[in-house]
Every structure is written in structure tokens, then in C-alpha cells.
């Protein structure tokens, strides 16, 4: 735009200044207008493209290498993709791991531990409750 007349540059700058912060970010980061973004949102029916849950705060997902805008994701799915660095080999390896757990193969059969996240307050309470129940059961079975 160096060769454009001064009036044209000013008009373009004024247009950009009138945009909302969100519209500026979409335009600067993803080269998307709000209408284009809304078209993607409507196409996905307001659902995350991966988990298909309704999105409260949609994230615009894009390839960090090429800039390709891929779609809208919930924050959880967007972070998950980021953790795998968009590497299809890692994602495929994760799927293979979930389908064929090495522990099941090594032990010859599935082995089940406690459910839930390890080390949480909820899990510690459950373990304590189960130990107490087991102790009560063992005391009632004591031979006389």
C-alpha cells in the first residue's frame, strides 16, 4: 500500500480502528472476518469439532506451521491437540495405546485398580472407606 494515495491509507486505518478487539484479533491472527468465523461456528452448529460438546468459549484452531484455519474447538480439545504438537504420529500412537494397553499384554489379562484420578482427595476418601469396610468384614469372619 506504499503507492496508495494518502487518503486511501487513512480510510483503511480508520476501518481497522473501528473494529472490536475481537474482530481485530481474528483479522490479525487468522485473516478471518467475523462473518467468516461465524460461518465456521454455524457450520459446526456451535459444537466442538472433536468432542461435539457445545462450546462456551470457542478456540479458533489453526496449524502453527502453515496457518491453516482448521475449525473451532473447546479449550480442552484445543489444549489436547497442542500437547500432541499437532503430530499425527503421536495422536495415532495414543489411540493405539488406549486400544491395546501394554499392561494388559504384559500381565496376560486386564488388571483394574481404583477408578478416578490418582491422589485426589475424593480418591483418598474412597480408599479409606474401602479399607474400613474390609477391616469390618475381616473382623466378622475371624474364626473362634
How would a crystallographer describe the biggest sheet? 2 strands, antiparallel
Q: Give, in order, the helices and strands.
A: HHHEEHHHH
CATH superfamily of the domain at 32-108: His-Me finger endonucleases
CATH class of the domain at 32-108: Alpha Beta
What separation lies between the terminal Cα atoms? Answer: 97 Å
* Low-pLDDT residue spans: none
Please provide the count of β strands.
2
C-alpha Rg, in Å?
27 Å
Query: From the 3D coordinates, which CATH architecture of the domain at 32-108 would you assign?
Result: 3-Layer(aba) Sandwich
Helix content: 55-70%
Strand content: 5-15%
Helix count equals 7
Query: What's the overall average pLDDT, rounded?
Result: 88
Shape estimate:
elongated
Q: Order of strands side by side in the largest beta sheet?
A: 1-2
Provide an overview of this structure.
The protein has 144 residues and is mainly α. It has a domain at 32-108: His-Me finger endonucleases (His-Me finger endonuclease fold, 3-Layer(aba) Sandwich), CATH 3.40.1800. Helices cover 56% and strands 6% of the residues. It has a two-stranded antiparallel ribbon with strand order 1-2. A hairpin with a 6-residue loop joins strand 1 (59-62) and strand 2. The longest helix is centred in the C-terminal third of the chain and has 20 residues, at 121-140. The mean pLDDT is 88.
